[in-house]
Amino acid sequence: MITGPKASYFRVDPNTGTVTVRNPLERDDDDKGVFSIGVVVSDADYTNTALDTVLFQVSAKDADAGLAAVVRYSIDEDGGGPAYNGDTVYQSNTAFAFITVVDVPDLDPQFLSTPYATAVDEHSPVGQSVFKVRAIDQDTGINDAITYSIEGTNDLFEIAASDGIISVKSDIDREALLDINFGVVLEVTATEVNPNVLGTQAHTATEVRITIGDINDNKPKFYSCGVNPSDPCVEASSFTANIFEHSSMGVPVNGLNIKAKDLDQIADSESLVQIMVKNSQDVDYETKTSMVVQIIAEDPSNTVDCCSTAIVTIQITDVNDNSPTFPHETYNIKVDEHSANGTTVGTITATDPDTMDVGNIRYRLLPDSVLKYFDVNARTGRIFVTNSKLIDREVISLHSPTLQARDQANNTGTTVLEIALTDINDQTPQFNRESYVDYVKEGSNLRIQVQATDGDESPNSEIEYGIVTSDYSANFTIDPTTGWLENNGPLDREAMQDKDNGQVKLNVTATDKGSPPLSTWGPVVINVEDINDNIPKFRKTSYTFSVEEGKKAEFVGSVQAVDLDQTIDHNRISFSIVSGSFGQFIIRTFKDKPDGYIGNITVDPDIELDYESSVKTFSLKAEATDLGSMKDTVTVEVIVLDVNDERPQFKPIGPLLVKENTTITEAVGNIEAVDLDSNHSLVYQLVSSRCRCNGSLSLGPCSEDWFNLETTGEIMLSEDFVIDYEMCEQVELEVQVVDEFTQKGENNSATPGRIVINIEDINDNAPAFDTIDSLYVVVSESASVGSVIASVTIFTVDRSLKVQLLFSKTVEEVKAAQSQIVLAAGDTIMEVYFVNANGTALDSDSAQTILSKSDERFKLQIEYGLKYIGGTVVTEKQVDPVLFVLLGLVAGLIIVLAVMTTSLVCTRRSYRTKLKAAKAMNSAAKVVTGGDRKSGPVVPGTNKYTMEGANPVLNLNIDTATDLGFDEEGSNADRVSLNSLDCNMDIVMSDRDTMPMMMIQEEDEEGGADNPYSEPLGEALAQHGRKKDNDSPSLTFANPSLSTTDL
Question: Is the pTM for the entire model greater than 0.85?
Answer without folding.
Answer: no
